[in-house]
Amino acid sequence: MIQLLCIFCTIYSTPLQESGMYGYRAPLLNKVDARCYENDYVRAWVYFTDKGVSTNNYDKVIQSVKRRMGKSSYDRRLKRGGTIDYADIPLKENYINEVEARGGLLIKESKWLNAASFGISKEDLDKIAELDFVQKITTVASFMSPNDTETAFLDSTIFGLTYNQLSMFNIDSLHDIGVFGSNVKIGILDTGLRRKHTALDNVMVIAEYDFLGGDQIYIENSPVTEQYGVYSDMAFWKTNSRINLFLTGDTIANNYPVRDIIKNQYRQGILSHIDFDKIQTLLSHHHILLILLPN
């Protein structure tokens, strides 16, 4: 009877000692998930039993984590009522080093999971699982849509990575029948368009107008119209009455359209005949006004 009791104590002495570690979780009986053996090489999460922090030293370690935490992170926790706890303690570096020494290639650490992802060959899985501080090993979750991947690859020579976006509007079908939208004038109305974006380098802009800041017509670097826009009109409205129409040629200043103001200036000899023709052309250029709003 005495001999059996001694054997029992010898077998279970290690787990009882390890349970003195804060946040300790016992290793699984079968540490390695069977899916890890399906391929010669696997990306896997290696979960650890603890972070090398004893129950007695836990409070000291937490205080050390607080001191090393960045001010912005600490303030963010306080604002949201969050606490600094076991999940904020970094992984034990020696554990990671031991896994690497047995063939694991470190990819990512997660102090919240108390685990790290590694690239591991099938032959090294069991060697890593033998480590006492390894709780379990599972595959890193992944997702792939074969159909989407194949379609994007087949059309990459024409559309590249934009295929999925273009196919939603059947643009690819139009291209198949030879319709590409060449030599078509379009109007763009957008409050977030960056006028100097590289995508517009080869685009011929017929005309543009800024609704927000307002626009003016210049002749030889001198404005020949007042600047009217949403912002300036809102400020003007506080002290004056004015009908607000924000398109060039229709803007009202003291109930007189800009086009009429230009005509009056021309009659008074302020503008030359050539200048007036330039303005008229600008106000009614071709058949469409291309409107671009800056960011």
From TrEMBL:
Keywords: Hydrolase
Entries under InterPro entries matching the protein: Peptidase_S8/S53_dom_sf (IPR036852), Peptidase_S8_Asp-AS (IPR023827)
One GO molecular-function entry: serine-type endopeptidase activity
Biological processes, Gene Ontology terms: proteolysis
Keyword Zinc: no
Protein name per Swiss-Prot or TrEMBL: Peptidase S8/S53 domain-containing protein
Native organism taxonomy: unclassified sequences, metagenomes, ecological metagenomes
